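Re-running Glyoxalase to confirm reproducibility after the cluster update. Everything else is unchanged from the original entry.
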Amino acid sequence: MNFIDAITLEVADTEAAERFYTTAFRLGPELRFRASQEPSTGFRGYTLSLTVSQPANADALIDAAVAAGATVIKPAAKSMWGYGGTVQAPDGAIWKIATSAKKNTAPATREIDAIVLLLGVADVAASKKFYVEHGLTVGKSFGRVYVEFEAGSSPVKLALYKRKALAKDAGVSPEGTGSHRIAICGAAPFTDPDGFAWETSALAAQS
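Result of re-run:
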Protein backbone atom coordinates (compact mmCIF):
# COMPACT_ATOMS: atom_id res chain seq x y z
CA MET A 1 0.00 0.00 0.00
CA ASN A 2 1.23 3.47 -0.85
CA PHE A 3 1.11 6.18 1.80
CA ILE A 4 1.69 9.88 2.43
CA ASP A 5 4.54 10.39 4.85
CA ALA A 6 4.48 14.20 4.59
CA ILE A 7 3.58 17.16 2.40
CA THR A 8 6.30 19.47 1.09
CA LEU A 9 5.24 23.04 0.41
CA GLU A 10 7.41 25.02 -1.97
CA VAL A 11 7.75 28.50 -0.48
CA ALA A 12 9.80 31.66 -0.91
CA ASP A 13 10.98 31.70 2.72
CA THR A 14 11.26 28.33 4.49
CA GLU A 15 11.96 29.81 7.93
CA ALA A 16 8.94 32.10 7.73
CA ALA A 17 6.73 29.23 6.57
CA GLU A 18 7.89 26.95 9.37
CA ARG A 19 7.29 29.72 11.88
CA PHE A 20 3.76 30.35 10.57
CA TYR A 21 2.64 26.71 10.60
CA THR A 22 4.13 26.03 14.01
CA THR A 23 2.44 29.10 15.47
CA ALA A 24 -0.90 28.81 13.69
CA PHE A 25 -1.56 25.07 13.54
CA ARG A 26 1.18 23.49 15.67
CA LEU A 27 2.08 21.22 12.77
CA GLY A 28 5.30 19.23 12.87
CA PRO A 29 6.99 16.60 10.68
CA GLU A 30 3.91 16.00 8.53
CA LEU A 31 4.65 19.32 6.83
CA ARG A 32 7.98 20.15 5.18
CA PHE A 33 9.26 23.16 3.28
CA ARG A 34 11.47 23.71 0.28
CA ALA A 35 12.68 27.01 -1.12
CA SER A 36 11.26 27.68 -4.58
CA GLN A 37 10.59 30.63 -6.83
CA GLU A 38 8.61 28.65 -9.41
CA PRO A 39 5.90 30.91 -10.88
CA SER A 40 2.35 30.20 -9.77
CA THR A 41 -0.69 32.33 -10.52
CA GLY A 42 -4.21 31.89 -9.16
CA PHE A 43 -5.58 28.62 -7.80
CA ARG A 44 -2.85 26.01 -7.35
CA GLY A 45 -5.27 23.12 -7.74
CA TYR A 46 -5.34 21.81 -4.19
CA THR A 47 -6.39 22.63 -0.66
CA LEU A 48 -5.29 21.28 2.70
CA SER A 49 -7.95 20.60 5.31
CA LEU A 50 -7.75 20.36 9.06
CA THR A 51 -10.72 18.50 10.50
CA VAL A 52 -11.63 19.10 14.12
CA SER A 53 -14.25 17.87 16.58
CA GLN A 54 -16.34 21.01 17.13
CA PRO A 55 -16.92 24.58 15.86
CA ALA A 56 -15.02 26.21 18.74
CA ASN A 57 -11.87 24.35 17.73
CA ALA A 58 -12.26 25.50 14.13
CA ASP A 59 -12.61 29.08 15.32
CA ALA A 60 -9.54 28.74 17.55
CA LEU A 61 -7.39 27.49 14.66
CA ILE A 62 -8.67 30.13 12.23
CA ASP A 63 -8.07 32.89 14.78
CA ALA A 64 -4.54 31.59 15.42
CA ALA A 65 -3.83 31.45 11.69
CA VAL A 66 -5.03 35.02 11.13
CA ALA A 67 -2.99 36.23 14.10
CA ALA A 68 0.06 34.56 12.56
CA GLY A 69 -0.46 36.25 9.18
CA ALA A 70 -3.07 34.27 7.24
CA THR A 71 -5.86 35.91 5.23
CA VAL A 72 -9.49 34.83 5.57
CA ILE A 73 -11.02 33.64 2.29
CA LYS A 74 -14.33 32.30 3.62
CA PRO A 75 -15.30 33.28 7.16
CA ALA A 76 -16.27 30.34 9.36
CA ALA A 77 -19.98 29.57 9.15
CA LYS A 78 -22.50 26.76 9.48
CA SER A 79 -23.33 24.74 6.39
CA MET A 80 -25.36 21.70 5.47
CA TRP A 81 -22.27 19.57 6.24
CA GLY A 82 -21.17 21.18 9.50
CA TYR A 83 -19.09 24.25 10.25
CA GLY A 84 -15.89 25.72 8.86
CA GLY A 85 -14.01 28.35 6.91
CA THR A 86 -10.95 28.79 4.70
CA VAL A 87 -7.79 30.84 5.04
CA GLN A 88 -4.77 31.46 2.84
CA ALA A 89 -1.36 31.13 4.46
CA PRO A 90 1.33 33.75 3.75
CA ASP A 91 3.01 31.26 1.37
CA GLY A 92 -0.18 31.04 -0.72
CA ALA A 93 -1.45 27.61 0.35
CA ILE A 94 -5.20 27.42 1.02
CA TRP A 95 -6.36 25.72 4.23
CA LYS A 96 -9.88 24.72 5.17
CA ILE A 97 -10.61 24.23 8.85
CA ALA A 98 -13.85 22.36 9.40
CA THR A 99 -15.95 20.03 11.52
CA SER A 100 -19.01 17.91 10.82
CA ALA A 101 -20.38 18.96 14.23
CA LYS A 102 -22.63 22.00 14.52
CA LYS A 103 -22.55 22.41 18.30
CA ASN A 104 -19.78 22.68 20.86
CA THR A 105 -19.55 20.01 23.52
CA ALA A 106 -16.33 21.01 25.30
CA PRO A 107 -14.00 23.98 25.87
CA ALA A 108 -12.19 25.16 22.75
CA THR A 109 -8.79 23.68 21.89
CA ARG A 110 -6.55 23.69 18.82
CA GLU A 111 -6.49 19.91 18.64
CA ILE A 112 -6.54 18.57 15.07
CA ASP A 113 -8.26 15.26 14.30
CA ALA A 114 -7.02 14.79 10.74
CA ILE A 115 -5.11 16.44 7.90
CA VAL A 116 -6.54 15.94 4.41
CA LEU A 117 -4.91 16.86 1.11
CA LEU A 118 -7.61 17.49 -1.51
CA LEU A 119 -6.43 17.49 -5.11
CA GLY A 120 -8.55 19.29 -7.68
CA VAL A 121 -8.56 17.01 -10.72
CA ALA A 122 -9.92 17.13 -14.25
CA ASP A 123 -11.37 13.61 -14.19
CA VAL A 124 -12.08 12.04 -10.80
CA ALA A 125 -12.67 8.55 -12.22
CA ALA A 126 -9.42 8.57 -14.20
CA SER A 127 -7.40 9.89 -11.27
CA LYS A 128 -9.02 7.34 -8.95
CA LYS A 129 -7.97 4.54 -11.30
CA PHE A 130 -4.44 5.97 -11.50
CA TYR A 131 -4.04 6.12 -7.73
CA VAL A 132 -5.45 2.64 -7.18
CA GLU A 133 -2.88 1.37 -9.68
CA HIS A 134 -0.22 3.16 -7.63
CA GLY A 135 -1.09 1.38 -4.42
CA LEU A 136 -3.76 3.47 -2.71
CA THR A 137 -6.96 1.93 -1.35
CA VAL A 138 -10.30 3.66 -1.83
CA GLY A 139 -12.10 4.47 1.41
CA LYS A 140 -15.07 6.46 0.10
CA SER A 141 -16.22 7.09 -3.44
CA PHE A 142 -19.06 9.22 -4.76
CA GLY A 143 -19.00 8.52 -8.49
CA ARG A 144 -17.17 11.10 -10.55
CA VAL A 145 -17.48 13.76 -7.86
CA TYR A 146 -15.31 12.81 -4.88
CA VAL A 147 -12.95 10.02 -3.82
CA GLU A 148 -11.23 9.56 -0.47
CA PHE A 149 -8.44 7.04 0.07
CA GLU A 150 -7.65 5.07 3.20
CA ALA A 151 -4.95 6.78 5.24
CA GLY A 152 -3.82 3.77 7.26
CA SER A 153 -1.03 4.98 9.53
CA SER A 154 -0.26 7.96 7.30
CA PRO A 155 -0.45 11.39 8.96
CA VAL A 156 -2.14 12.85 5.86
CA LYS A 157 -5.22 11.53 4.05
CA LEU A 158 -5.62 11.98 0.29
CA ALA A 159 -8.87 12.88 -1.47
CA LEU A 160 -9.83 13.82 -5.03
CA TYR A 161 -12.39 16.44 -6.01
CA LYS A 162 -13.33 18.09 -9.31
CA ARG A 163 -11.11 21.16 -9.70
CA LYS A 164 -14.00 23.63 -10.14
CA ALA A 165 -15.90 22.15 -7.19
CA LEU A 166 -12.81 22.31 -4.98
CA ALA A 167 -12.15 25.93 -5.89
CA LYS A 168 -15.78 26.82 -5.18
CA ASP A 169 -15.59 25.06 -1.82
CA ALA A 170 -12.44 27.03 -0.99
CA GLY A 171 -14.00 30.30 -2.11
CA VAL A 172 -11.64 31.09 -4.99
CA SER A 173 -11.70 31.14 -8.79
CA PRO A 174 -10.70 27.80 -10.40
CA GLU A 175 -8.35 29.49 -12.86
CA GLY A 176 -4.64 29.13 -12.24
CA THR A 177 -1.37 28.54 -14.06
CA GLY A 178 2.17 27.54 -13.22
CA SER A 179 3.54 25.31 -10.50
CA HIS A 180 1.34 23.56 -7.94
CA ARG A 181 4.06 24.53 -5.41
CA ILE A 182 3.56 21.25 -3.56
CA ALA A 183 5.12 17.78 -3.51
CA ILE A 184 3.71 14.65 -1.88
CA CYS A 185 6.13 12.40 0.00
CA GLY A 186 5.21 8.73 -0.42
CA ALA A 187 6.53 5.27 -1.14
CA ALA A 188 7.56 5.90 -4.73
CA PRO A 189 8.13 8.84 -7.09
CA PHE A 190 5.63 9.57 -9.87
CA THR A 191 3.53 12.38 -11.31
CA ASP A 192 -0.26 12.04 -11.49
CA PRO A 193 -2.49 12.98 -14.47
CA ASP A 194 -2.96 16.52 -13.12
CA GLY A 195 0.73 17.20 -12.61
CA PHE A 196 0.97 16.61 -8.86
CA ALA A 197 4.40 15.18 -8.09
CA TRP A 198 5.11 12.43 -5.57
CA GLU A 199 8.60 11.95 -4.15
CA THR A 200 10.15 9.05 -2.25
CA SER A 201 9.82 9.87 1.44
CA ALA A 202 12.53 9.52 4.04
CA LEU A 203 10.46 6.76 5.66
CA ALA A 204 10.36 4.76 2.42
CA ALA A 205 14.07 5.32 1.80
CA GLN A 206 14.89 3.87 5.22
CA SER A 207 12.74 0.74 4.79
